[in-house]
Specification:
It is a single chain. The chain is α+β, with helices and mostly antiparallel strands. The protein has 4 helices and 11 strands, in the order βββββββαβαβαββα. The strands form 4 sheets. The chain has a 5-stranded mixed beta sheet with strand order 1-2-3-4-5, with no helix packed on it. Strands 6-7 form a two-stranded antiparallel sheet. Strand 6 and strand 7 form a beta hairpin. The longest helix has 73 residues. It is rod-shaped. The termini are far apart. The mean pLDDT is 84.
Length: 226
């Protein structure tokens, strides 16, 4: 453990060295003069700044209310007033994903640089007020976490429900068209048979006339001859 004091204040660092090595130590944890804690970095920019992978067995959450990730308690026996999410699809459609560049003059607030993609806090607040918080500095933050993911899941379910109902309507219309098509086929078939019968009658009349003319030549005294 070591520490130093400068013009901006002091800091505390915890150093380690690898086994079976001579000399050479490395700062593993640093607490800066402003209270920021760095793991794997000696210049933490946030309250907790970690350089490297994080292996957590518990739950990551903000303000003891908003889950970020991890393995979190979710037993039904611990909950009450359980109600399904509603109207998530319409709300999700109101969100506007954007790409943007962080303003460098406010780097001490956002601690970012370059471009990113995300949402605008003021726009999210109009749709999901519980997902936006305003810190002491007056700037708004979005609670990116499981709550947004769950709302997206519900929105997908609602969309699938609409799609399923639409499919039922389409299938019903197709069934009706197929039924009407079968009826039309039957009607056309009847008309075709009717046309064939009329043709047969005409042929019979022609044959009867020829036979009558032939017989009248042979037997002009017959009753059916004119």
């Amino acid at each position: 453990i070591g520490g130093n004091a400068g013009e901006e204040g002091g800091e505390i660092s915890i150093y380690t060295k690898q086994a079976d090595t001579v000399g050479g130590v490395q700062a593993r944890i640093t607490v800066s003069h402003d209270g920021n804690v760095g793991i794997g970095t000696t210049t933490p920019d946030d309250a907790l700044d970690v350089v490297g992978d994080i292996d957590a067995t518990g739950c990551l959450q903000t303000d003891n209310s908003s889950v970020v990730g991890g393995t979190c308690t979710s037993d039904e026996r611990l909950k009450m007033n359980i109600n399904p999410l509603v109207s998530s699809l319409q709300k999700i459609l109101k969100l506007r994903p954007v790409e943007y560049v962080w303003r460098p003059e406010f780097e001490d607030i956002h601690h970012r640089e370059g471009g990113e993609i995300g949402l605008i806090a003021q726009e999210v607040e109009e749709v999901f007020p519980d997902m936006v918080v305003e810190k002491e500095d007056g700037y708004k933050r979005i609670r990116y976490g499981v709550s947004l993911t769950l709302r997206v899941i519900q929105a997908i379910k609602e969309f699938f429900g609409i799609y399923t109902e639409d499919q039922k309507v389409v299938n019903a219309r197709l069934a009706k068209l197929e039924s009407e098509n079968e009826k039309l086929k039957e009607e056309l078939s009847k008309q075709s048979r009717s046309i064939t019968s009329e043709s047969d009658v005409s042929e019979l009349k022609a044959e009867n006339k020829m036979m009558k003319e032939f017989l009248c030549e042979k037997y002009p005294e017959a009753d059916f001859c004119p």
